[in-house]
Design brief:
This protein is α/β, with parallel strands linked by helices and 598 residues long. The chain has a domain at 7-204: Rossmann fold (3-Layer(aba) Sandwich). Helices cover 37% and strands 21% of the residues. The strands form 3 sheets. Strands 9, 12, 13, 14, 15, 16, 17, 18, 19 and 20 form a 10-stranded mixed β-sheet that branches. Helix 6 crosses helix 16 (508-521). The chain is elongated. It starts with 29 loop residues before the first helix and ends with a helix. The structure holds 2-acetamido-2-deoxy-beta-D-glucopyranose.
Length: 598
């Protein structure tokens, strides 16, 4: 949008000014008085594409706006909005300001009022109606004392916001600029970062600049609550702690705990964990409530949803996601089955030259076979008998669905189950059908190691999970048993982005995002994963053939006998063909003789 140098005057006086609070001092309104201070603060905005949206209660005359515009020598876009204390008007003003905000750059919303109710209601509403997004700066200017403004703490702490308090008690005008630090207990005094007097102008009182970045690194280590559940490479640990409620404190050990520790060191915070009762990621029920970790997040009981959570439209509607921690698709894990003797093993000694000779003679046989087969009934070459053997190896979801003996294990309370249940077309409706037929069982992630031992190893069940999770399961099993009993499909489906989550519109999310982006770029996540999961690559790219030295039995040699029997049949055929052709030739020549004789 080209908003450079444009200035517009929007006057939304919806109703005449209603009952006013007594003015603290003289008759000049706050806006006029604060103009000089505001100029000093707003002139720190260097970008010419800036915009200021000024919101006041209904006590300012239109003249004041014009004066102010003239006084603030700035190329920025200006929007003036005036509301009365009536709630409905505030909403209209915010809607109008929101439209302007969408078309503007570097927006600073300035709220000027001496009415504490108005200040509180308009700032909390600007947050709720998303007039303020993470990048928007908020400046409130008032003549009220700090003691009357406790209610602002909550909305100001989580925003890029400053408060200017004007003080005329000592005869001349003086101002203080305050910042509310995030995640401080209710009632914590705001931090004074600058002061202003007519002859000294604006002076910073700390090392912080105006509109300091409060979230890239917390200035005062806050305590945050993270929600997590245990899974294969992320173990729950319960500690005795007299200070904790119930005498027990939970923590975790594993990949995501490492990620959270990294975030806490980078962002300067301490943390504790909560865990949902059901130990799931969480899906939405018919009433719109979420279960599992998503439930904890939507009820506002945690600041960080550690997850990592698959990004889905429903979840994105209620929480914000960081930069992806992982991108993964679902794969199918199945038992590898026992080693089987290769009936064609006797062919192994054959060297390449022998093979060439064999191939040439075989192609001769094949040719005969093909010629014959085109005359034979198709029943002999019934394809099905070959296919069932081949598909005992699971390659795709299709294979699982087509094999009625296979039972699927899906993760309970996961987005995947919600996804296939909601599917209206395609292969996932068949998964829902399979569930109705009793071919699906549900496990929490923590139950998977038990299931793979009892159910998956012997081949009746398969697990559908993300590749990294399956790898972990396989690696853990390998570490225990010393052999690879499982494999997973090459085909993936339901590819999703996985990220850490935070409360909607909370600036904590973009600052965690920056750290997670750095973590991914430096390959830390993959490195940590290898570290927490020993043997994670042991069961990858396994040979499909292994050599075992054992005594042979007749059943192992059926390949040999098949060749023998085939050879006999073939020679019998050739033999009968010979007899047949001789008889046929005799018959033909004798009938020809008869014809010529006749
Ligand atoms: C982190 O928080 C501590 C405790 O409040 C504070 O002393 C320290 O200066 C902070 N660190 C940084 C780098 O801001």
């Amino acid at each position: 949008m080209t908003t450079v140098g444009v200035s517009i005057l929007l006057l939304l006086t919806v109703s005449p000014a209603v009952a006013q609070l007594p003015r603290p001092h003289d008759s000049r309104d706050t806006l006029t008085v604060s103009a000089t201070v505001m100029e000093a603060v707003l002139s720190t905005e260097k970008d010419p594409r800036c915009s200021f949206l000024l919101l006041t209660d209904g006590v300012t005359s239109p003249n004041t706006f014009r004066m102010l515009k003239k006084q603030l020598q700035t190329p920025c876009l200006f929007g003036f909005f005036e509301a009365t204390e009536d709630n409905k008007d505030v909403d209209q003003v915010i809607e109008a300001a929101k439209r302007l905000r969408r078309n503007s750059w570097h927006v600073t919303v300035v709220v000027v009022s001496d009415d504490p109710t108005f200040l509180t209601s308009i700032t909390s509403k600007t947050v709720r109606n998303s007039l303020l997004v993470a990048e928007t700066r908020l400046l409130a200017v008032t003549r009220l004392p700090l003691s009357k403004l406790w209610d602002l703490q909550e909305s100001f702490a989580l925003r890029n916001a400053m408060l200017i308090l004007m003080d005329e008690t000592s005869g001349s005008l003086g101002c203080s600029v305050y910042v509310h630090l995030p995640y401080r207990p209710q009632g914590t005094k705001a931090l004074k970062i600058a002061s202003w007097t007519p002859h000294r102008g604006l002076t910073l009182t700390t090392q912080l600049p105006l509109f300091p970045d409060k979230f890239t690194r917390f200035l005062e280590k806050p305590h945050l609550v993270a929600v997590s559940v245990e899974f294969a490479s992320h173990n729950l640990i319960v500690l005795e702690d007299v200070a904790a409620p119930g005498g027990k404190r939970i923590t975790f050990e594993g990949i995501m705990e490492t990620v959270l520790k990294y975030l806490s060191e980078g962002l300067n915070f301490t943390y504790s964990y909560v865990r949902p009762e059901d130990g799931t990621w969480g899906t939405q029920n018919d009433k719109g409530q979420f279960s599992g970790m998503m439930g904890v997040m939507t009820r506002g009981e945690a600041d960080i949803g550690l997850g990592p959570f698959a990004l889905t439209p429903i979840r994105y509607g209620v929480v914000d996601y960081t930069y992806p921690v992982d991108i993964a698709s679902m794969k199918i894990m199945s038992g590898r089955g026992r080693a089987e003797a290769d009936p064609w093993g006797f062919l192994l000694p054959l060297a390449p030259l022998v093979w060439v000779a064999l191939l040439i003679s075989l192609s001769g046989v094949l040719l005969t076979f093909l010629l014959l087969s085109s005359y034979l009934s198709p029943k002999i070459f019934d394809r099905r008998s070959f296919k069932t053997n081949a598909s005992s190896l699971i390659r795709s979801l299709r294979d699982v669905l087509d094999d009625p003996s296979k039972i699927m294990i899906w993760e309970c309370g996961s987005f995947t189950v919600a996804y296939y249940r909601a599917a209206e077309t395609g292969i996932f409706t068949e998964v829902a059908d399979a569930e109705r037929e009793g071919r699906v069982i549900f496990n929490r992630l923590a139950e998977y190691p038990g299931s793979i031992d009892k159910l998956v190893r012997e081949g009746s069940h398969v697990i559908l999970e993300t590749e990294s999770f399956l790898l972990t399961l396989m690696a853990q099993d390998f570490s225990q048993k010393g052999q690879c009993d499982f494999y997973y499909s090459r085909d993936g489906f339901l590819s999703r982005i996985y990220g850490v989550t935070g409360q909607k519109n909370n600036p904590l999310v973009p600052s965690m995002s920056k750290r997670i982006l750095a973590m991914s770029e430096f390959g830390l996540y993959d490195h940590w994963r290898k570290e927490v999961v020993p043997n994670s690559t042991s069961c990858l790219s396994l040979p499909t053939k292994i050599t075992v030295s054992t005594s042979l039995s007749v059943t192992h040699l059926w390949g040999l006998f098949t060749i023998l029997v085939c050879g006999y049949i073939l020679s019998l055929l050739v033999f009968s063909l010979e007899i047949f052709s001789v008889c046929f030739l005799k018959f033909v020549s004798s009938s020809l003789e008869n014809v010529t004789r006749a």
